[in-house]
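Researcher: Here's a chain I'd like modeled. Treat it as a single chain, no partners, no ligands.
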Amino acid sequence: MRKHGGCGAMSTIGFIGLGIMGSPMAVNLAKAGHTVLGWNRSPGRAAALVAAGGTKAASIAEAVRAADVVITMVPASPQVEAVAYGPDGILENARPGTLLIDHSSITPQTSVDLARAAADKGIRVLDAPVSGGEAGAVEGVLSIMVGGERADFDAARPVFDAVGTTVVHCGPHGAGQTVKAANQLIVAVNLQALAEAVVFLEKSGVDLRAALDVLGGGLAGSTVLNRKKDNLLARDFTPGFKLELHHKDMGIVTDAARSVGATLPVGAAAAQLIASAVARGDGGLDHSALLRGVELLSGYGPAE
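Model: Modeled as a single isolated chain. Structure tokens:
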């Protein structure tokens, strides 16, 4: 881990949200030498952190009370607000001077509001959503797009370096979330195009594995293709990133685009196809399960 000034080489970290992404991130922080106290709303999620040398906290207050850095990784804006505000929340229990890093994917305005409320308590905030999915979280190679004060970004580098390899300061509060919204737009369109290509190739009688291998080596290659190829080949939609969360993110990007006057014709179509998948009951599956919708439209019969 590269060492930078600000938070010190090692920090005491209160980590809130030990889900699909949060658990491996907290584990990597513990393995990097940080002292990590983890809390999750639902029980039974702290085992991996404890095995890596971290500690299970009984409450948000316990997790953040002695922390230099507090990290949140929860599903959406309502959950961020639930853990941040109120007498049992982060802002009432963290010490002045604490650095709060929110890795959740939420609306830019929620991030701006949180930073403003935290400043009244003497707490610094960075919105720092991530990209890379569960595999990126496990491998510690996430891309992290950060909004907030540059000095706070610089101070947070020892923490970011434990979980990501591409870490970029994107601008003021909310900028990280805006870039994440664009990321989710690109990923959604890419996944839909990949699903359509898979069905096209199969119906044409082409060896799908060979086709995806050669496509991955050309201009059509992408991180999405590399990460999701095996899911598509095996029709294994065990969630690395759930469709219902991508549905939430597409709502964020379409609303944000409307507010700034940007038109997203292909993105709007992808958003509707994701909404359709969630309405069919696929929300708990990996977002590569967009393939199931293309199969239905192409006459494969009911998705199994």
